[in-house]
Amino acid sequence: MISRLIVILCLLWTFVVPWPCQAQTTALQRVRIAVSTATPHNTPLWVAKDKKIFEKYGVDVQMIFVGGGQLVAQMLAAGEIQVAANAPAALLGLVAGGEKIVMFLGVSNTSPFTLVTLPNIKNAADLRGKRLGTARFGGSSHLSALIALEHLGLNLKRDGIVLVQAGLDPERIAALEAKGLEAAMLQRLATKIMVAKGYTPLLNLNQAKIPYQNTVLAARRDFVTGRARLAESFTRAVVEGYGYVFNKENKQAVKEVIARNLRLPKADAAEDFYLEALEELDRKPYPTLEGTRTVIKYVAEQNPKVAGVKAEEMIDSTLLKNLENEGFFDRVYGGK
After folding, report:
1. Which of 28, 90, 206, 273 is the most exposed place for a label (fewest CB within 10 A)?
2. Which domains does the chain have, with CATH numbers?
C-alpha cells in the first residue's frame, strides 16, 4: 500500500517540479575542438557556441585555441580533441603517415590573402630579387605566397625571391613600412589599411578564384563513422551557425560575437571582420577536391611523402550530404 502511494505521489509530482523519480534530461555529449587561428571564418563556430546552438542539438562543445596548426593536428591524432579547425596543410604529413583523419566540412574554401607590395612595385617583374613576408612556413600564408608567385609567373629560385617568416599581419605591416620587406601576404583588413596608404595590392587570391582549401573541420575517421550520431549533431549545429551568420537580421549580434572572440573594443570595430567572414564562407560548406589538390601539390614540394595522398581519400562529405538530402540547408537559410 505504501509503495503504491509513493508511485502515485511521484506521478503527481512529475507535473509540478523535477523529482528524483522523474527521468532526467539526457546529458549533453562533450566534443573538444581546437582552433589554430583566431580568424573571422571561424564565426559560425563562435556563433553556434555563443547562441547555444550546440546545446540545442545535445552537444557540449569545449572550444580551445591552440597556436600552431601542427600542434592541433598532433592533438587530433592523439585523441586529445575530437575536431580540429585547421589548415589541411598541417594534416597532410599525418595522413601520409597512415593516420585516419578526414575533412568533413570546408570552413574556408579560398585563400584570404592578398599579395601587397611597396608603392613603387606595380607588376610581377618588379618582385624579382625582393623579400616576401609570410607567417610560419607550411601555414596558409606561406602556401598562398607560393600559389600567388606561380600565378604571376614567378619562381623563387629563378627570380631570386626570398620568403621571410615575418609574424602575423601587424608584424608584416610593420616590416613593410620599415622596408624590411618589399612584399607581404596580408588578410582583408590589413590589406585595406595598406592600400589606403598607397601600397599595391598586386594579387588578391580570393578574387583570382584560385582553388585553395584554406581551413577545414577535420576529425579521425572513427569519430565521423563510429560516432555518427554525435558527429551529425555537431555538424547540424555548425550549419545552423552558418545560417545565423548569413541572416542579415543578425548582423549586429554576429558582430558582437566576433568582437568578443577577437577581443575588439566594441562591436562596430568588427565591421570589416564581419564582411571578411561573409566573403570567405560558403552557404554549403563542402570541402573542395580542387582546393585540396592545390594544397597537396605545394606541400608535396616540401614533403615528397605527401604526394601519394589523394584528395578523395581525405574528404568525407557524408554528414553534409545527409543534411542536404533531408532539406536541412533549405530550412536553415529559409530563403535568406
Report:
1. 28
2. 29-110+212-333 (3.40.190.10), 114-204 (3.40.190.10)
112-151: per-residue pLDDT in tens?
899 999 999 999 999 999 999 998 887 889 999 999 999 9
pTM: 0.84
C-alpha distances (whole Å) from 89 to each of 40, 291, 310 are: 19, 11, 13
Lay out the sheet containing 29-35: strands in order across: 59-65, 29-35, 83-86, 215-220, 101-108
User: Could you tell me the end-to-end alpha-carbon distance of the chain, in angstroms, rounded to an integer?
Assistant: 61
Quote the cell numbers at residue 201.
595590392
How far apart are the C-alpha atoms of 147 and 137, rounded to whole Å? Answer: 14
Q: Which tens digit of pLDDT belongs to each residue from 273-324?
A: 999 999 889 999 999 999 999 999 999 988 999 999 999 999 999 999 999 9
In whole angstroms, give the CA distance from residue 210 to residue 110: 7
